[in-house]
Every structure is written in C-alpha cells, then in structure tokens.
Amino acid sequence: MDRSESQLPDVRRRAFENACRQALTDWPPGITARAPERPVTCMGLSFSNRLGIAAGFDRTGKLGKNAGALGFGSIEIGSWQRSVPPQIAGGGPPRMTLAGIRLAVPETETPERETDRLKGLIEACWWSADYLTLAPNWLKTATAFPKLHANLVALIEFRRQLAQLTGKHCPIVFKLRLTPGSTDDLGLLPYLASMGLDGILICFDFGKPFTEKSFRRWDCQKLQASVCHTLELCRKRMPADTALLTNGGVQSSRQYRDRLNAGADLVQVHNALVFKGADAGYRILQPYLRVTNRRIPATPEKFSSW
C-alpha cells in the first residue's frame, strides 16, 4: 500500500533515526571496504567514493560525517537557514566523508535581499563546510536576466574574496531542479556553465506531493534512460573542470553506474534511504566492496534489508 503524503514525515523521521543508529554499529559480517587506489578528486576535494546523501535527509548534521560508516563519501546538510553553522557529527579517518551544507533563504525575499542573506550564510558556514550548495529562488523564478546575472556574479565574487581572505578552498555548487524525462528546463545551463562555477547539481524531481508511488516511478527503465540522456546533454554543455552532480531516483548499482557513465562526477541519494533502508549505500556500492563470504550473513536487528 502506498504511503500517503501525510504519513511520509513519520516514515522519513524513522528512516533517518535508523540511519543514525546503524552508522554507529559495525559493518555487516563478511564485508570490508575496498580502499580506493587513489582518492576521487572533484572540485579540488578528495572523496572516498562518488556516492553521497542529498540534502533533506539530514537537516541538522546529526548523522553528519558518520554517513561514511554507511558507505557514503559525502553528505549534504540542510537546507540550512540559520546564521550559525550546524554541528556536524563524526568525521576523521577512516571514514573520509565530506560534508556539504545546502543553504537556503525563504522565498519571500527579493533577489537582492536573498543574495545578501546568502552571503551571510556562506560566511557563517564557511569553516564548517567542505563545500556549499545554493539554489537561489531567483534561479527558479522568472527573474529578469540582468538582475539574475548581477546576483550570481555577486555570489561568485563573494566566494572568491572569502577564499582569498581565509586561504580555505570551499567550492560552491549551484542547484538546478529538472522534471524527470524532460529537457525543457535546461535553458539556464549553458549560461551557468559559462560562469566558471565549481559545480552544478542537477536534481531530478517530480515535485510535491512526493509519495512512495512517486518513488516507484523510478523503476521505469525508459525514465532512467531519459535522465541519463539529459545528463549527457548537461555534460556536453559544461566545461570539463565544472563538476556535474546529480540526484533523484538512484536506488541500484546499475543506476549509479549509468549516471556516472552519463557524465556525472558525484551521485546523491535520498529517498532510497527512506524506502529501502539505511543499507542502501552498501547495496548501490556492492560491486565496489570486497566480500569475504559469498553469502552475506543476515543480521536482522542491524541490517534487516540485506
């Protein structure tokens, strides 16, 4: 039976709490991580792998870098709207999990005011984040191009000044939301790609309300192929040194591999953790893990979905 929109907050909360608990337990018996031959370098940062958790699953940093114990090389915290940085749990070797922070401002702000507030959030979270993700409302609405350009340049210049002042490298990724199966929303991509951004995150989103039925729509191979085609178009329109990140609908090793083959540098998941369990990362990365026993021993109380 499909879970209605009214039930989803509880489902998501329970999935998140379970992920936090499992991140502090041992790995399933019979499995050890295969250490990469060399770190994956993206946006000037070193990631232990290309799989991450998208913003919205961990809104406060409670799971934080402990997500590395679930197999993830990165996690985005937020959306974050407070003028103080989140307290991000975990960190340090051997997990090597990087933490991005997704910053957001309420939609009621004018473009200029939103940009000023985003600058404040960038400065507040600068030292806590390995990278930052922005999705300004003026990128999503019918903002006049001169105003859009002025605000984007202001954010890029502010990031450059902070990096110069502090000596810290903290990439900024700009997020674009696309309707799965459509390329009609790619109009801004060539312009953004021309601005020398650190990264662009393509988020494939059916919109609200999101239910388990929406999640199951991703089982369609034709839809998955269409999304990969869109990523191929994005990659062709972007400079090689601009990172391409993506999320939306990834729930298997094959889909993860297909997104990478389509040109994505980093792939994020969210709803796979909600509807398939906290071991979703292990399942997706299974070809990249070394299994000491052909049959993985069941551990129902910890990793029930294996």
TrEMBL record:
Its cofactor is FMN. It comes from Marinobacter shengliensis. It comes from the Bacteria. This is Dihydroorotate dehydrogenase domain-containing protein. Pathway: Pyrimidine metabolism; UMP biosynthesis via de novo pathway.
